[in-house]
Structure formats: structure tokens, C-alpha cells
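R.M. (postdoc): so does anyone remember the format we settled on? I'll just put the C-alpha cells first.
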């Protein structure tokens, strides 16, 4: 064990005590300063190190090998040189300065390591937080939020890759105007910035976009973006998207910023990939593969829920059953692939013309169903009339070969309240649909129950045909 004493209790002494106290091969035998309350003396006492105000008492201690003069006093330095035992080394003057510089470097290195450990611990904590969520939107939000905090940037965004359309779309953003979020999709241009980032294995830094020749994004320029750090999000070689952080003034990101940002991107990419697969599986389990509308199983579940809520809170609700008229004739004339295309197009038009709160489903074959919360028969009829017009105007291939020279629809509506229960309401809507067929198709029929057990009465609405349709 190498024994040392420290003369002088100032700031230099504090650093020396902290460093030497941690070394298992060195023992600090004592610290001396005329003022017992200097930082070095206080620290030494806290650590159980002997402290004295008369440095001469330390010079005769057994197992003393070196005296560290941190006093900065020339007179004390001369006294130490004269009084030290022959076998004891005096470290002062230039040698003390060099040792002090070494101590400072070690301190800085230790602080750097502690900072890096803290930051990597933060990355680990972020990873745990992201993994704990299965909601894709929440994962995207936290990824952008944590990326901006980690890099001390003012804005950020996360763009996802659409494999089907081979284009990017905005998944989440922070720190930008509302105008920015409206530009939700863009093509990947070969040689452009997006293409460059996706083909990079490490984050791409642009200190100033105005000096970057490949940057030609007018939206970003309008937002005032100057600096960009972007990481490609890859999961087992699969492109997931791009994570961006932005500053509104030119900036050089440090190597540490880039390293931590890239690590966050790697973690986020795998978590987003799993969340997307889970979301896709969940969506596939409740949607019809051909039309993208809800399937019959999900409709049945949502219908039971909707009816119970309508009964419990005494709210209005409309159920609509829809059938494509003469669909078998269309399939026989044009073939099933063309018929499938009509089903897709009708489904898309139905979804487009209904409200966000409506539950639109493919009921089976060429039949569709809509659950319309808080809706009366009159309100449902207005919505469906728009839909009939949209179908009439749509340029279906071969529609002139259909009876009536057009693709038309029959619809049946039944409404709550009335306390019919789910199965009764479904029966009413189905009965109204068949009545629309019986009356000649291409019309909307509302089921009205007399509540006396007698036969239903019908309220029929038929959209007047356009002159060019020549529907009899």
C-alpha cells in the first residue's frame, strides 16, 4: 500500500482526495490545511481521513511514501523540501501541476462515462416504455417525443414506409405547424434525401439544409427547418420508416448525439414492426379481405353492442341492409374478377359517403350492412341518397349491360327505439330490403311496425333517375 499525505485543502485537494481514495493501491494518511473548514478538509473528515492544521505532524507518519503539495505556497514548499524524510518523495511545483492536470482529465473522463451511462440507461428505459405499449400511435408519439428530448431539438417526426404503394407517409410529428401535418404522403425519388437516408446504415446529419444540394423540400423550408438528423428504421433488413429530429438554426450534432439517436432508432424500429404486425393481424381478423370493410363477425358483435347502448340510453339508431341489384347477372356477363372489382368499388363508395361514427360492413356476398348511431330513418335516408347518387355516377365497367343500364342498389332501413332487440331489428331491416326488391329494386324502403302485431307498413324512397340512365 502506497501511503500519501496532502498539504493544502483547496479545490485541488478535493479532486485529489476523490481520485486517490478510490484507488485500492493508495492510502491517504492525512490532509493538512491551516483552515479546518476548507472543502478538502471537510471531505477528508467525511471519508474518515486524518486531518490536522499543522502539516509537520504528517511528515513523521509511518508508511509515508509521498507528500502531495497542493498548497500553492512557495514558503511551505521550501519547508516541505527541507523537512521531508529522505525516503519520502515530494510532489510539488511542475510535477504537481502535471498530476493535477491528470486528475482533471480523469475527472472529466469519469463525468463523461457517468453521463454516457445515464444516457444509455435512458435509452434502455425508453425501450422498456415502448415495448410495454401495443398501440402503434402511442409508440410513434413516444418515439418522437423521446428523440427530441435526447438530442435537445425543437421538432421531430416519424415517417412510415408503405410497402404496397412504395411511398412514405407521416406517422407522427412534433413542433411543426398544422400545415406540416397535412402533407401526409410523398414519393421516394431516387437520389433524393429520403432515398439517401433509407439506403444509409447510420444516421444522416445535415447541419444546414440550405447548403445541402439534395434538399428540395419546400414544406420544411417554410417551417424554417435548418438542421436535420435522420435515422433509417430497419427491422431485420425490412424498411420500417425514418425517424427525424430538427432544429430551426444550423447545428452540428455531436458523435454522442448521433450514436444515441441511432440506438433509439434501432430499438424503435423493432418495436414499431411488431406493433404493425399486431395491428395488421387485428385488422385482418375484423375486416373483409376484398372490400376492406368490417366483416360479418365484427358487424355482429358491434351490432349487439350498439343495440344494447341504444336501449340503455334510449338513443336513436338505424340499421341499413344493402344489396347490389342483379349482381348475378353482372358476374355471369363479365366474370367474377370484374364482379369483385364492383364489390370493392361499392364498398369504397359506401365508406366514403358514410360518417366516421357509422359501422360499415360487408354482410356477405353482394350484401352490405351499416350501423348508424344517433340516427333516425329520415337522417339515414339523406345519407343513403347521397350514396345512391355516388353509385349512379360511378363509371363501373360494363354497367350499360345491366338491367336498367346501370349498377343499382336496394336498401332496407329499420330503426330503434321501439324495444325490438337486436335480432328483431335485424329481421326488420332484412324484411325492408326484400320489400325494396319486391317493389322493383333501386330504392330505399323503411320498415314501420304498427306495434299492434299487424302487418308492417312501408315508407319507400326512390332516387329519381338521371336522364342519361333511362331507368324505367
Amino acid at each position: 500500500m502506497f501511503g500519501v499525505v496532502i498539504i493544502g485543502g483547496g479545490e485541488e485537494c478535493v479532486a485529489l482526495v476523490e481520485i486517490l481514495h478510490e484507488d485500492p493501491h493508495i492510502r491517504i494518511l492525512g490532509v493538512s490545511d491551516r483552515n479546518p473548514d476548507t472543502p478538502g478538509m471537510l471531505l477528508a473528515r467525511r471519508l474518515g481521513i486524518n486531518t490536522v492544521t499543522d502539516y509537520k505532524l504528517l511528515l513523521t507518519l509511518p508508511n509515508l511514501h509521498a507528500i502531495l503539495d497542493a498548497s500553492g505556497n512557495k514558503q511551505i514548499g521550501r519547508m516541505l523540501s527541507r523537512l521531508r524524510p529522505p525516503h519520502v518523495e515530494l510532489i510539488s511545483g511542475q510535477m504537481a501541476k502535471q498530476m493535477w492536470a491528470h486528475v482533471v482529465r480523469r475527472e472529466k473522463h469519469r463525468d463523461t462515462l457517468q453521463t454516457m451511462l445515464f444516457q444509455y440507461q435512458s435509452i434502455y428505459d425508453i425501450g422498456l416504455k415502448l415495448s410495454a405499449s401495443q398501440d402503434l400511435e402511442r409508440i410513434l408519439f413516444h418515439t418522437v417525443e423521446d428523440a427530441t428530448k435526447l438530442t435537445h431539438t425543437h421538432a421531430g417526426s416519424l415517417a412510415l414506409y408503405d410497402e404496397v404503394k412504395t411511398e412514405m407517409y407521416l406517422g407522427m410529428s412534433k413542433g411543426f405547424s398544422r400545415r406540416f401535418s397535412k402533407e401526409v404522403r410523398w414519393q421516394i425519388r431516387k437520389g433524393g434525401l429520403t432515398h439517401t437516408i433509407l439506403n444509409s446504415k447510420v444516421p444522416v446529419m445535415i447541419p444546414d439544409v440550405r447548403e445541402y444540394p439534395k434538399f428540395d423540400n419546400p414544406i420544411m423550408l417554410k417551417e424554417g427547418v435548418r438542421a436535420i438528423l435522420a435515422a433509417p428504421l430497419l427491422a431485420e433488413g425490412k424498411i420500417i420508416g425514418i425517424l427525424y429530429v430538427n432544429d430551426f438554426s444550423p447545428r452540428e450534432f455531436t458523435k454522442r448525439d448521433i450514436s444515441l439517436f441511432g440506438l433509439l432508432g434501432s430499438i424503435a424500429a423493432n418495436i414499431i414492426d411488431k406493433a404493425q404486425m399486431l395491428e395488421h393481424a387485428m385488422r385482418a381478423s375484423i375486416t373483409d379481405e376484398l372490400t376492406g370493410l368490417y366483416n360479418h363477425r365484427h358487424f355482429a358483435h358491434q351490432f349487439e353492442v350498439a343495440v344494447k347502448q341504444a336501449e340503455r340510453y334510449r338513443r336513436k339508431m338505424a340499421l341499413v341492409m344493402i344489396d347490389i341489384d342483379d349482381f348475378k347477372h353482372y358476374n355471369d356477363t363479365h366474370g367474377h374478377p370484374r364482379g369483385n372489382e364492383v364489390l370493392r368499388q361499392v364498398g369504397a363508395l359506401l365508406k366514403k359517403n358514410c360518417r366516421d361514427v357509422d359501422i360499415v360492413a360487408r354482410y356477405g356476398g353482394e350484401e352490405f350492412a351499416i350501423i348508424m348511431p344517433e340516427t333516425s330513418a329520415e337522417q339515414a335516408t339523406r345519407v343513403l341518397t347521397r350514396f345512391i347518387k355516388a353509385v349512379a355516377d360511378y363509371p363501373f365497367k360494363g354497367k350499360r349491360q345491366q338491367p336498367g343500364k346501370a349498377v343499382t342498389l336496394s336498401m332496407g332501413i329499420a330503426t330503434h327505439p321501439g324495444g325490438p332487440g337486436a335480432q328483431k331489428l335485424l329481421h326488420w331491416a332484412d324484411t325492408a330490403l326484400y320489400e325494396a326488391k319486391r317493389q322493383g329494386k333501386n330504392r330505399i324502403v323503411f320498415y314501420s311496425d304498427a306495434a299492434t302485431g299487424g302487418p308492417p307498413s312501408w315508407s319507400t324512397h326512390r332516387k329519381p333517375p338521371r336522364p342519361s340512365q333511362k331507368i324505367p
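R.M.: ...and that's the designed sequence above, right after the C-alpha cells. Also worth knowing: The two ends are 110 Å apart (CA to CA). The CA atoms of residues 207 and 227 lie 5 Å apart.
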